[in-house]
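[recover] target loaded
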């Protein structure tokens, strides 16, 4: 055991000596770093908060008579999504994601709608200032998992300056 201690003792002294010499400074060293550090306040534009997204808390699953998975899902959940542009700025709907999860937690369908998809589907994605606009969407589901659960909808909108905000709403499906 004394041979073991004899081998370990020098290994413990090396880091201790290195650390103790680190704190010793006689003041003759020069530094290349500036002695004055100037800070500048960064002003960032606040994100707009002039958007409100509303959806019913619950919708009923609608059966699809000619369903044939995976080409045609056996159910869909119709949701009327209302987006309000509060304030003096027009908003533009940029993106929408819809994701169904059944009551067991099994994720099913995920639908992503880009700006081009939204324009094709709704004609325009503009929400004029101080108005509301309803976007009727439906998400097919049921090829995997059950027919009850919830739809998570994420909406990204931007104002006229290009600032974006994403809001999520959850709609129960029964």
């Amino acid at each position: 055991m004394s041979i073991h201690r004899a081998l370990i003792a020098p290994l413990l002294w090396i880091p201790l000596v290195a650390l103790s010499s680190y704190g010793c400074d006689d003041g003759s060293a020069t530094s290349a770093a500036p002695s004055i550090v100037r800070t500048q306040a960064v002003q960032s534009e606040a994100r707009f908060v002039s958007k409100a997204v509303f959806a019913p808390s619950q919708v009923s699953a609608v059966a699809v008579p000619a369903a044939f998975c995976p080409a045609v899902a056996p159910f869909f959940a119709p949701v009327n999504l209302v987006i309000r542009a509060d304030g003096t700025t027009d908003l533009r709907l940029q993106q929408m994601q819809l994701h169904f999860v059944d009551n067991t937690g099994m994720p099913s369908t995920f639908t992503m709608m880009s700006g081009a998809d939204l324009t094709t589907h709704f004609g325009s994605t503009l929400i004029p200032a101080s108005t509301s606009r309803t976007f009727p969407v439906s998400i097919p589901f049921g090829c995997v998992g059950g027919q009850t659960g919830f739809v998570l909808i994420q909406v990204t909108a931007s104002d006229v300056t290009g600032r974006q905000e994403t809001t999520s709403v959850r709609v129960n499906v029964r």
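[recover] notes: DSSP finds two helices and ten strands in the chain.
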